[in-house]
Every structure is written in C-alpha cells, then in structure tokens.
Amino acid sequence: MRARLRAHAARVKSGWMLREEGAPDDSVPILAVWPPTLSDAQRVRRALLQRGVHPPLIRYPGSPPGGYFRFAVSSEHTPDQLEALRETLARFAAKFPAQEP
Questions:
Q1: Which 3 state secondary structure label does DSSP give 58?
Q2: pLDDT, tens only, 58-93
Q3: 9, 75, 78, 92: least buried by Cβ within 10 Å?
Q4: pLDDT per residue over 27-53, tens digit each?
Q5: What distance in Å separates the CA atoms of residue 12 and residue 79, rounded to the nearest whole number?
Q6: Sign of the dihedral defined by the CA atoms of residues 20, 22, 27, 30, in that order
Q7: How far apart are CA 4 and CA 60, in angstroms?
Q8: Rounded to whole angstroms, how far apart are CA atoms 42 and 5?
Q9: pLDDT band for position 15 (50/70/90)?
Q10: What global pTM score does this model have?
Q11: CA distances from residue 7 to 10, 49, 98 in whole angstroms, order as listed
C-alpha cells in the first residue's frame, strides 16, 4: 500500500511539471495549491467539480487572499480519480504555485 501511495502521489504531482528547485516532493501524498486570487480559486474549483473532484478550499486568517487547496492522495484512489485531479491541476500549473504541506 505504501508503494502504491507513493506512486499515486508522484502521478498527481507530475501534472505540475516541476522538476526544479522548490518542486513538490513526489513521495509526500499531500499537495497544496495556492491560487493568487479568490476568482482564480473559484475557476479551479469549478474545473475540479466538473471532473468529479470535490476540492477542499482552505481560507484561514493569514492564508493567501484566494485561499488554497490541500489535496491528500490515498492509496485507494482509482486511476481515473487521480487522472482527473492531475489533468485539471496541470491546466493551472504555470499560474499557481504548488507548495509542500
């Protein structure tokens, strides 16, 4: 299950196409995505909902103005679920930074 979890995390994070300094660690099954504005966050949310992904938007005091999404990848997610998340996030990868948890 741990190997499958690491593979799932790497699969989702590959959508960010980040392999430079500061790229998310593929072995961590959590990905935080920081849209710069609330309207950007709403666009991401709509796109994810259309793919059947229910995104958790976190808006704590002191967090970015648009809040941020925090996705926890599971070893039990299906390939279709992972691909829906990966493909949708890949559309926004150039505009929004991904952060380690």
A1: strand
A2: 888 887 777 889 899 999 999 999 999 988 888 887
A3: 78
A4: 778 888 888 888 888 999 999 999 999
A5: 10
A6: negative
A7: 32
A8: 28
A9: low
A10: 0.75
A11: 5, 24, 18
Give the H/E segment covering residue 33: strand 30-33
- Specify the CATH class of 2-99 in words: alpha beta
- 39-28-24-55 Cα dihedral, nearest 10 degrees: -10
**For residue 2, what are the CA distances in angstroms to 22, 73, 75, 76?**
24, 12, 7, 11
Q: Do the beta carbons of residue 16 and residue 23 sit within 8 Å?
A: yes
Domain spans in the chain, listed from the N-terminal domain onward: 2-99
What does the block give as tokens for 92?
Answer: 């926004």
DSSP letter, residue 82: H
